Amino acid sequence: MADGAVVIDKAGLDALIAVLTGRGRTVVGPTVRDGAIVLAKISGGDELPYGWGVELEAGTYRLRAREDGAAFAHSAGPQSWKTFLHPPRERQWSADRGADGELTVTEDRTPPPSYAFLGVRPCDLRAIAIQDRVLTGGRHVDPAYRGRRERAFLVAVECTEPGATCFCVSMGTGPAVGPGYDLALTEVLDAEGHRFLVRSGSAEGESVLAELPRRPADETTRTAARERVAEAAERMGRSMPLVDLQVLMRETLTAERWDDVAARCLTCGNCTMVCPTCFCTSVEDVTDLSGDHAERWRHWESCFDRDFSHLQAGPVRDSSHSRYRQWATHKLGTWFDQFGSSGCVGCGRCIVWCPVGIDITEEAHALNRERGGADGEGTP
């Protein structure tokens, strides 16, 4: 076919995992564990969450059994691929004092793993592109991130069933897959069977595809794949107001709505931990009891932490009001000034994993109404 699309079945998906493993890659994909669909190392297709979906709402996440046996009919879980490309904790260097008192400092240069990510959602594919821009696109490149990213193979999966907290259409990030993948899958289940439409997006993707049991894409499968993605776009559970969000954030810095959300926000930082684009880190130094060995570790940090903006005179953002406003206005507004795009991809994780159910889309609509925008503007 002109676009090189092919069709594989469940056995072909098993073969994909085997081929990637055979090429020395650590395959990471969705699997059911501890009452959630999480991302973890997998060795075979039987570990994928066939027959499992999720029920999402603000502050709520539940697994639910499906009757159709779909593998990828679930929404974003508590993790994103950031966990693997930009880990929560990473050693920077270690120092040892020898018997002669000399101090030797050794930079941590652990060889980067060769990952294959299976099941990257369109919103998360965009999130990876955003983190690429943040961590490798400027003057100050993160070499550890770049090493892992350059060796990563991305198998994207188009969304056919959005969750109640998804709003990728508002952010222009889904449910159809965008650029940046090595292989892209669209899952189809109908009277013709359970299968996957597959197309390649890179030379390596084409090479991997050539090793799989496959058949040329037929028009029935192509049409079904297009229709399911189009239907998903019509079933988004959330939306942002149909306004320029960068301007909205800039024009509502003194809005009373910030007081309302601050009264509910626990400043726990859950939203930043689950966000696939938040990138802030801090460092800590640790030593053993003898004082002869020390290490420096980098770890994720959150702008909701009171000490995050601590200067000599004290914290710059001392209130929950100022910290929530900083996070939201940066994510939806000033991220454009720094990196040329929004920092939000519409995955909805911050809504689901907020313990008090704060909804960033609800807050944006409220700010727009307070500014004088049409009530409910942008609501589907």
Summarize the structure.
The chain is of the alpha+beta class. It folds into 2 domains: 6-91 and 109-233, no CATH class; 245-280 and 303-371, no CATH class. It is built from 13 helices and 16 strands.
Word description of this protein:
- By secondary structure, the protein is an alpha+beta fold.
- The protein has two domains: 6-91 and 109-233, no CATH class; 245-280 and 303-371, no CATH class.
- It is 32% helix and 24% strand.
- Strand 10 (183-190) and strand 11 (193-200) form a beta hairpin.
- The two termini are 37 Å apart.
- The mean pLDDT is 93.
Strands, helices and their partners?
Layout: E1 6-8, H1 10-22, E2 26-33, E3 36-41, E4 52-57, E5 60-65, H2 82-85, E6 89-97, E7 103-107, E8 115-120, H3 122-136, H4 143-150, E9 153-157, H5 168-171, E10 183-190, E11 193-200, H6 203-209, E12 215-216, H7 219-233, H8 245-251, H9 257-264, H10 270-274, E13 281-287, E14 293-300, E15 310-311, E16 314-315, H11 320-339, H12 349-352, H13 360-371
Parallel strand pairs: 2-8, 8-9, 9-10
Antiparallel strand pairs: 1-11, 1-12, 2-3, 4-5, 6-7, 6-14, 10-11, 13-14, 15-16
Helix pairs in contact: 8-11, 8-13, 9-11
